[in-house]
Amino acid sequence: MKRLNIKNLCILSICLISFSSLSYAQEGTISINQDEAIPTLLELKKEINKNDDRYKIQVFSGSRSNAEEMKADFKSAYSEWESKMVYETPNYKIWVGSFRTRLEADRALIKVKKKFPTAFIFEPKKEK
To answer: Which fold would CATH assign to domain 51-122?
Structure first.
């Protein structure tokens, strides 16, 4: 076996460097053909998901002063869910959260019932 000396090694390195600079990466173009209805469907899905009030939890129903007190109690006990006071004749109601699935609402209800035992899950009426 012959050993490569430094001179041959340098020549070999120079040759490899010069050939590597001449090689180019492959280039190409990609074209995507999609149905014209896809953007319309995406917009419809965004509109549907915008109104995600599928499930809520009602914590209280009664007079305004009691409702304000319950809302403050809820906010101090459970800050992870948004609460709002809604007036439906003749009572003020405290509604909590906006859950996409019944399972999410059930899990939250288990936690909420520890402090508010009369709480329950419902689906708000859709406004037309």
So the answer is: Alpha-Beta Plaits (3.30.70)
